[in-house]
User: What shape does this take?
Amino acid sequence: MGKVILEVRELTTKYVTRFREDVYAVDHVSLKVEEGKSLGIAGESGCGKSTLALSLMGYYFPPLHYISGDIIIDGRNISGMKPDDVRKSILGREIAYIPQAAMNALNPTQKVIHFIEDVVQAHDPTKSKKEIYEMARTLFETVGLPASVLQKYSVELSGGMKQRTVIAVAVILGPKVLIADEPSSALDVTSQKMVIKMLRDLMESGFIKAMIFITHELPLLYNVTDDIMVMYAGQIVEKGTAREAVFDPLHPYAKGLMGSIIVPEEGLRSARLTAIPGVPPNLKNPPPGCRFADRCKYVRPECRVASVPMREVGEGRMYRCVLSEKELREAYQNG
Amino acid sequence: MKGYWKYFLNKLGWFVITFIFAFVLNFTLPRLMPGDPVAAIVSRLAQGMSNATGVQAIYQQYAELFGTNRPMHEQFFIYVRNVFRGDFGFSFSQYPRPVAEVLGASIWWTIALQFPAILVGWIIGNTLGALAAYLKGGFDKVLMPVSIFVSNFPPFGMAVILLAVFGVTLKWFPIAGGYGFDLIPSFSWNFIWSVFVHYQLPFWSIVLIAIGGQAIGMRSMAIYELNADYVKFSRFMGIKDRKIIGYVFRNAMLPQITGLALSIGTMVGGALVAEIVFSYPGLGYTLMNGVMGQDYPLISAATLIITIMVLTANFVIEILYGIIDPRIKAAQSEQ
Amino acid sequence: MKHTLRQVFRSGKFLFGFSIFVGLLLIVIIYPLLVPDDPLRIIGQGTFFPPGIYVNTYDSVNAATKYTLNLPEADVRRIESRLKQEDRLAMREWLTAAGIPESEIDIEDTERLLTLWNNNFDPKKSIPGMTNARRNYFIRLNNALKGLATSGDLILASKQAESGTLEETGIIKDTDYVNVSEVANVRVLVLGTDNFGRDMLTELVTATRVSLQIGFVAGLIATLIGLTLGLLAGYVGGLVDDIIMFFTNLFTVIPGFVLLILISYSIGQEQRGAFTVATVIGFTSWVWTTRAVRAQVVSLRNRDHVNLSKLSGHSIPHIILHDILPYIASYVVMALILQISSGILAEAGLSILGLGPKTTEVPTLGLMMRWAMIYQAHIQGNWWAYLPVLVTIALITFSMNLMNTGLDQVFNPALRD
Assistant: This one.
């Protein structure tokens, strides 16, 4: 087992809506990512995976609020730190974030290099513009982007180029952990491949030490990440290696999710295509028991009584269900 | 810079086209109406003036100057020639003063009143709107309904109320004219002070109306920008909030500039009516006197000058906008 | 549809604006049923009678029953209402000059002021720096004040037809009262009269109706033109689009107000009925609707359901009617509301310039404003002649804008915050 780079313990955060309602979009989430590893987070839209990505940064602004839990990056707990210290010494330096719609992630009226100057000087005001330019040029060339991009406005860049520029800017300060929220979903296939390759290269060269990759596209996760977590209604319901989570899911929701996709991938093609009926529960008022109970084929009365804990089966393999592994496998066999 | 030139030439072309078109409209519209324009003028003259020989003299002079008894196209060229000489004929109602002289006296009052007022209103309105979007809460809750109400108030209504409150009731400011009735225009302190005091009420009535509309526009633009992805990305890259607010307001301000260009015609129209309320010696008041005195040459020339003023202001704003917004240059040079 | 309507009516802003608007409409409809007077009828001889209850003096004197009421403050009140502001100021001037500390003089408190005056005024007292003429003025003032205080009975007399001599027919004491409900002629002028002596309230209600009609006609014309041009430009595209957009861009920068002035003037005062003015306003304000509709149609043009309809061989009118119009309906309604309120403002602006509807047929809000301005109601402090008009205009446009904001929030949830 390698060194743990990112550890999250029982992290809970909430959204406050316009109508002052609390939405618990991240509910007691724990995870660990080791050096050199990548973790994928999958789930339907609205399951809380994007909120989780935001919450992992340890830097909260309305409507998102921190409630409890710890975030430990390379042995340093950032949860108790003052927001301005987090901003100064953690964001961009220890952990970096690539937003969902990277298309609009660059200020449209600012040249790329000026944004980089602002980013670098926000952490180290003593750096001169010349040093920053050299730094940026070297980085851009290493990741295969032309240095001319630095002098451009985002409107002048194509979609794929923009996304890769955002990634390059995100890692300019050499963060240990990179969190990518749907970094490739709005792109065409070629650009998607280039973006994925860029992320992989960053990992392989050791430039970033760990990565969390969030997407609703399961086949992509299977190809890119080492481990996969499945989220449902703000909670983690399944965790395992990419192979386990995709080919041998235990939780009924994960099972349904894997069955609801068409994947041109060996072994997956034979899987039957099944949609999960129903909608996720309203997180303003989550049900007391299992949150998937209303949509679950194998629901039992005890499912609805109290919250269901995670069960651990084997090294790093977990799922959240009242049924045992054996019972679940039997149920799946019988259809 | 090439991109900007393209933009500039495009806008210049538009300026010329709209100018020609407005010119043609100004010439044709009054002549398109049913009935003989010459006869109509004569009948109106007979109503408006008591001096019979004066009527005859003006009629002769008018027919000569504008060639009203010749074919339409010849009339047009005579009109063009006269206008470019600055010769708009004699004013019917203020005979024997030439129209050019009557308007020459009032145009500067209008320019000195309206453009500073619109500009100040625009600046204050945008600042307030930006603050409302950023501070939210109580400030927003008070400012917005007030702005909506004020911007729905007819411009002349604001003028009347200011006049009744600050001019008639409180007697802080004079209620009519551009300077004291007992003064002769000169460069004395007395005269300048009188002009300054008379300036206040018309000025603020235009400013207040402009503030309302601009604040509403700026607020929604700023809210839109505050939720933009680049804000989130900049925050997570550790950039200070103050700097991000700078990005946001700059970007929200830019569309407001084009908004100003588009609405300046309406604003000038409203401000002209406000001038009437204060008997301010500008174009609006002159126009009203022209209408009351059935003074066709005066009205025709005044509308032409107002159009030229608005078109020019519009052109200048768009040219400035092209310099300020980098996207214009980028978009133009890509084509 | 039903669902959308319910959502619309759940929006607080829309509901608020809608209630104001419906309230105005109800007044406009119901008031003429209760008070069927001709709004342009001149009832007052003189200009700008202030709001109040007008009791006929002739009928009061001849009222059937006279009542005697002994009210303690009656005298003071009587003097108070007859003591003019300039007299009070003059009294203060003399008193301060005579050495009474200014803090003791309160010119608003009539009783104390009079006592102070009666105790101190001495016509023989010479005050340094006062001219003879001024001294005589104060003596006259003193005599007048004495006249105010001593109230005697009034004698009613009538002239005899034959001899021409006066014959006493009755006495009116200062304690005589009549009951207003027993007086034959009492007229309540809630908003007083205007410069011509017309009942402001009746006129205002009619003017509101006419202005709303003008706004509606203007808005309808502008919206119809804008909708047609926008649909053509957006859906047909190509050369048609280029031509329409060329003219739209032209009229965006050429101020509509100027066109309005030119056309209205050219039509001439006699031909300018309210309906004509509305039409002219409509024909000069279609630009924004055209732009908005076109932008919407362009974004709809290549949607799947429109393509499907095209592939199914539907005609262009069919596609526009079934696949495009329903999607832009909300925008069109919002544009219409906006056009109505700006039409009302445009009429008001034109009327103030003197280019509004002719003044002999119907009142409009703009014409009322113009009359108030010309007769300088705002300078003379006759607030009832212009303030109610302004408030009405502001209420109309404000309510419509609120409705629009409400609709916008329902149909464009992204802008909700």
Observations:
- Chain A has ten helices and twelve strands.
- Chain A touches chain B at residues 57, 59, 61, 87-88, 90-93, 96-111, 115, 118-119, 122-123, 152-153, 155-156, 166, 169-170 (CB under 8 Å).
